[in-house]
Write a structure and sequence with these properties.
CATH class of the largest domain: Alpha Beta
Number of helices: 13
Number of strands: 10
Largest sheet: 6 strands, parallel
Structural class: alpha/beta
Shape: elongated
Number of domains: 3
CATH architecture of the largest domain: 3-Layer(aba) Sandwich
CATH topology of the largest domain: Rossmann fold
Distance between the termini: 54 Å
Low-confidence stretches: none
Length: about 325
């Protein structure tokens, strides 16, 4: 893209061509073609022979025209070189800065692919305050992501080197939402080899792809077509249930949300029953379910005793949920 200074210089150069052509026609009585040619070789100082004899006034006019043209051309070339060099420097420094940021990141989420699904995943993770790294190889999408200030890695998500660059060994979770099931399987397999503790969610397009992704190491597999069909059916058969889930799932601006809170060792809630913890009075939230390892306890009773590492699925307002999370973490 031309800078404003280069554009102004080119406009001035065009104006000098007009002035030079008109001057030679007026001073020497030259034709328009000869006058334009004479102006060109004078402004560029190439030193070709004169196409017509010059009078004393014409010689003086030529000297001033050549001096102005040389200075203007040097100005344009300097600005063009500066723009190119500055652009390359900014790109290099930007790449180095992003690499340094990636090296310092830990406990982040990695999103492989920035299609429609990947974009929705990134938006929700950012809304939840999670640090995100996006792996993408489309130049236009990369420019948009960099412009938005997001951490990105340019490359193929199936490549071990690219996954290493994204900090997979230090990441908390990874979402494989590439357009091809085979690529998602390979991404899951490679990511799992780099980080055995990584929580991996994969997108599946075909029915038999789910089992392959689970065998490759995915913790969860989502088939958007199957989920979309189930949702459409549920909206017909159970509209009240669907409306409740829509209202309770975390979305900016909603007054009621579903969240999960992990009880760390040392939390004041560990060892207490749900009745004793009195979450509704203290934070205005209710416990919908508790997950303990692989077990799930939906709608637990008030005498259900909480243990360290339990994950509470709670329903409440955003302020109460944030206060509960801070209280649990502060005591951990």
């Amino acid at each position: 893209m031309l800078t404003a200074r280069i554009r102004h210089g080119l406009l001035l150069l065009a104006s000098m061509f007009v002035v030079g052509t008109a001057g030679y026609m007026l001073i020497e009585g030259a034709s328009a073609g000869d006058a334009f040619y004479m102006t060109g070789i004078t402004l560029t100082t190439v030193g070709y022979r004169e196409v017509f004899p010059l009078s004393r006034v014409g010689q003086i006019f030529t000297v001033f025209l050549a001096t102005a043209g040389l200075g203007l051309l040097l100005f344009i070339l300097t600005e063009a070189a500066r723009a190119v060099f500055a652009g390359e420097l900014n790109e290099v420094f930007g790449r180095v800065r992003r690499l340094r940021m990636l090296e310092k990141m830990s406990g982040h989420e990695i999103v492989c692919g920035y299609g429609r699904m990947g974009q929705a995943v990134v938006i929700e993770l950012l809304r939840s305050g999670r640090p995100v790294v996006v792996i993408e190889r489309d130049p236009d999408k990369l420019r948009r992501l960099i412009g938005a200030g997001l951490s990105v890695v340019d490359g193929d998500a199936t490549s071990e080197d690219v996954l290493r660059s994204a900090g997979t060994a230090r990441a908390r979770g990874l979402v494989a939402c590439l357009n091809d099931d085979a690529h998602n399987v390979y991404t899951v397999l490679t990511a799992r080899s780099l980080n055995p503790k990584l929580f991996i969610v994969a997108r599946a397009g075909e029915e038999n792809a789910e089992s392959r992704m689970l065998r490759a190491g995915a913790d969860r597999v989502v088939n958007p077509y199957q989920l979309g069909g189930l949702r459409l059916a549920h909206m017909l058969a159970k509209p009240a249930v669907v409306d409740f889930l829509d209202v309770s799932l975390p979305v900016a601006g909603r007054s009621l949300e579903l969240e999960q809170v992990r009880l760390e060792k040392g939390s004041p809630l560990v060892g207490t029953t749900l009745g004793e913890s009195d979450l509704r009075r203290r934070w205005g939230v209710g416990v919908v379910a508790v997950r303990r390892g692989e077990q799930f306890f939906p709608n637990p009773d008030s005498d259900f005793r909480l243990e360290a590492e339990d994950e509470l699925v709670v329903l409440g307002g955003r302020a109460g949920l944030e206060s509960l999370e801070v209280s649990v973490k502060a005591a951990s």
